[in-house]
Every structure is written in structure tokens, then in C-alpha cells.
Write a structure and sequence with these properties.
Keywords: Disulfide bond, Membrane, Repeat, Transmembrane, Transmembrane helix. There is one protein chain. This protein is of the alpha+beta class and about 230 residues long. It is built from 1 helix and 16 strands. The strands form 4 sheets. The protein has a 5-stranded mixed β-sheet, with no helix packed on it. A hairpin with a 2-residue loop joins strand 3 and strand 4.
Length: about 230
């Protein structure tokens, strides 16, 4: 299988070539687009090609060549708009900080749009002079950057960037987790609490032991006097 990224209308030639040492001799070759059969446009020894003119997004998808003989083998080409290089792991930061999300593609995008998930809906992030919450910076035609300033717990959630191409658009997903400034101190406070409990327990035990020891001495003196 092979992925082929296409941003603009273009002509594409797809070729399947059988290895010279293959045991598959004189195979019957069929090209398919999804479930539709296509005739190959050129043929040479152990090689079969189709030429496509991709002008709309409906022509994107999977194209396969299927070789049948004593056995059946196939190869698939996936024609798609350029994917966005997003971030798989969550972005973890703290209240009051700045969160930065960067989207990249291998081709120049015509336009970029940012969204935040609100349940099942995507809410468009609008940057206006009246607010200093968001900043969107187009570093180049293939790189776009969102900055979220003065983070609060309400900024926690899932964000999407969308890049638009002549043949369609693609989205990249980011997950933002905003933690309280007390979050890093919690493990330390837990350790301090354990130490305090341990020290208090030892102190009470020693105090109890001393009282018991003094009580034993008095009892011994009384017996001696008797």
C-alpha cells in the first residue's frame, strides 16, 4: 500500500510492476477504483499502468491493481489530501501559562481554521482585536500556529486545526490539559503529610513508653517499702 498526497488538481500515473523473479506468470490484471473496474492505459513486460486526471475531491480514494494467476496478489494506492502533522500526546500546562499548538503540512494550504470541541460540535475560534485570549500566526503557507494566553481551567479540552486545499481539507487534533498551579505540589504535600504522621506516631510512642517506665518505677518503690 502507498499513500499519495495531492493538494491541487493534477495528472497521476499509477504503476504496478511484478518482480522478475516472481512465480506468478502471465497474470490476469484488473484495476479498480473502490469497487469500479478500470482498464489499464499502458502495459509492458511485468508492468501495468493507469493514467488519471484528478480534478475534484470525489476522484480521490483508493486505486488497486489485482494480479490473478496461480495465486492472487494486489497493490493499493491511496490518493488523499495532505495530512496534518498534529500531536498525539496531550499538551499539559498550568493555569496562567501559554499553550502553543502548531500544525504542519507537506504542501502549502490555501487557508487555515482553528476550532474547539464543544460536545459534538466544533466552535470556530475567532481572533479579534477586542480579545487577547487567542493569537493565530501563519509562519508559512504550510505551518500555522495557535497560541492560547492566560490559561484557565475553561481552556481545557480538544482543539482542531483545518487546512484547506483545492482538492479538499484535512484536520489535525490536539488535546489540552490545564492543571492547577497546586498540582505539582500535591506529591510533595502527600510526602510531608506521611512524614508528619510518622514523626507524630514515634513521638506519642516514646511519650507513652516513658510514662509506662515511670509508673513501673513507682510500683517497684512501693513494693520495696512494703
Amino acid at each position: 500500500e502507498k499513500n499519495i498526497s495531492l493538494a491541487n488538481p493534477t495528472k497521476v500515473e499509477l504503476t504496478c510492476k511484478l518482480d522478475e523473479n516472481s512465480n506468478l506468470k502471465n497474470p490476469q490484471v484488473t484495476w479498480k477504483s473502490e469497487s469500479e473496474t478500470i482498464s489499464h492505459t499502458s502495459k509492458s513486460q511485468n508492468s501495468w499502468s493507469i493514467q488519471l486526471t484528478i480534478s475534484t475531491s470525489s476522484q480521490l480514494g483508493s486505486y488497486s491493481c489485482i494480479l490473478k494467476g496461480e495465486e492472487e496478489i494486489s497493490a493499493t494506492f491511496h490518493l488523499q489530501v495532505p495530512k496534518i502533522e498534529g500531536k498525539e500526546k496531550p499538551i499539559i500546562t498550568y493555569e496562567g501559562d501559554i499553550a502553543v499548538m502548531v500544525c504542519k503540512t507537506e504542501y502549502a494550504a490555501m487557508a487555515w481554521t482553528w476550532y474547539k470541541s464543544n460536545g459534538t460540535k466544533l466552535v470556530h475560534i475567532d481572533v479579534s482585536p477586542q480579545t487577547d485570549k487567542f493569537q493565530i500566526k501563519r509562519q508559512s503557507a504550510s505551518v500555522n500556529r495557535l497560541e492560547i494566553l492566560k490559561l484557565t481551567k475553561e481552556d481545557d479540552g480538544v482543539y482542531w486545526c483545518e487546512s484547506a486545499f483545492a482538492l479538499g481539507s484535512s484536520k489535525g487534533r490536539f488535546e489540552l490539559k490545564v492543571l492547577s498551579i497546586m498540582a505539582p505540589l500535591k506529591p510533595f504535600l502527600a510526602v510531608v503529610a506521611e512524614v508528619v504522621i510518622l514523626v507524630t506516631t514515634i513521638f506519642l510512642y516514646e511519650l507513652y513508653s516513658k510514662k509506662k517506665e515511670k509508673g513501673g518505677e513507682r510500683e517497684f518503690d512501693q513494693i520495696e517499702q512494703l
